[in-house]
Amino acid sequence: MKLQRLVIEDFGLIARAELDFAGGLTACTGETGSGKTMLLGALAFVLGERASADVVRGGAARARVTLEVDADAALLERFALDGFEIESDETASFARELQAGGKSAARINGRAASAAQLRAFGNLLVDAIGQHEQQRLLSPGYQLDVLDRFAGAAALEARAATAAAHARLATLEAQAGALRERDARDFAQLEFARYALAEIDALAVRAGEEGELRARRDYLNNVERIASVLARAHEALASESGALEALASAAAALAGVAGYGAELEAAAATLAGVQSDAGEAAATVARLAEGTEFDPDELERAVQRLDALERVKKKYGRTHDDLEAARAGFAELVEREETRDERLATLEAAAAAARAALESVAATLGELRASAARALEARVAEELAGLAMPAARFGVSLEALPEIGPNGRERAEFALSANPGEPARALAKAASGGELSRVLLALAVVLAGRREPSALVFDEIDAGIGGSTANAVGVRLGSLARVSQVVCVTHLAQIASWADRHYALRKNEKRGATTIELVELRDREAIVDELARMLSGSTAGVAREHAATLLSDAHRQKSPRAARR
Question: Which residues form the domain of 296?
Fold first, then answer.
């Protein structure tokens, strides 16, 4: 993965600027107040860092920054997972704009994105190292991260396994603790569930039973009326002067003349059918009339059953499905409570196994850290000697924690003795700003081959140093640029002379407005002039000779590799 191009529009004092990153070291220089930090601010902005509307250049409607990136396979895979997929031969792009009114918008590969998504990808693309990073370096948590990164893949895998084991143990212990905390409310719930389950099961409700009972109750309550109506209906149909006798006479009469026309034949057939239906109706009415016996005991049973159903429904559910769901819930609670001891024993056994696994993997991680700590001490001390701190002693101590945490059994602390005879003390107490910068750079060099392939961005890493130390820092940055893409904002010519691509920021004032221009220094003469200005403020005489020598020395030392432009 490589940063390709940064395009800035109306950000701070920058009206428009384009920066094409070198494959190796890209240096940005300029006079104090020329906007060097603003340049890195624009890079941080497009990668999701918070910004207020005052970053919009005065008079402009909005600020916009675009970053183009040559994506590697890992970044392409991450794009695909997050919905920002592109073809392998396409250039990845990150764009963000902020309107003067405060509204912002972002896009990744042309698709709408959030600032949080920009930050997530920014953590993959850029490793920013500056004065803020110096403060992080003082944190024990960050120091432990550095040690684990130096220890390599085995330690990182053991750390991840430790975190997973710790999380599993915490989950099991929380579940076991919840089972142990059985209070009066739990007992009351259990007793109620048992009572409710027994009440529902004793009733044994059938689907549709209530409707059947209501229909039977209503029938028995009206059986006398029904019997009277049936009797009258049967008499009207089947008496000597009833409908059946009249229909029979009419049907016989029509049957005698049916042969004299189609209509007469149809009428006779219809009447014969009516006679047949009336006969069946009379038989049905007679059967129903015979069965209309009133049974007070059956009515009492139906009423009592309906009352029982109504009481249970009011308690547990208005429909049969509701009642079944309530029963299932009570049954589950009873089963869960009755098997509590068994489940607690299972959880405790699982927790014991999880603790043993945690202790084992944490012990492995501790061994890897102890071994890496000694190697890291030696490597950093070696780098500090090359950074004009020949007598420096760098120490890594590991302190056991009372309990194993998600990051293991120990905490790390970096210590430094900068001068002969001084005891090694914690970095926060032992190191000046310039010394911290060198420790940070030494760590960056040591970790160069053990970090993700993100670009290293150094923001004023040269704070508090100069002279021979500045030369040594330049050599180290040049060395880093052989294996990583490096972007550096600097005010020291000794560092800028190592650049594979050099940009200078110029402040312009015109008609009462101030803008910043980004100029790529393409030819040697322009670069020498800028280095001379950085050395003494002059672009002539001894300053220029010194600048030319610096540039020649840097080119000669990095000659085994072609300058990656």
Answer: 188-338
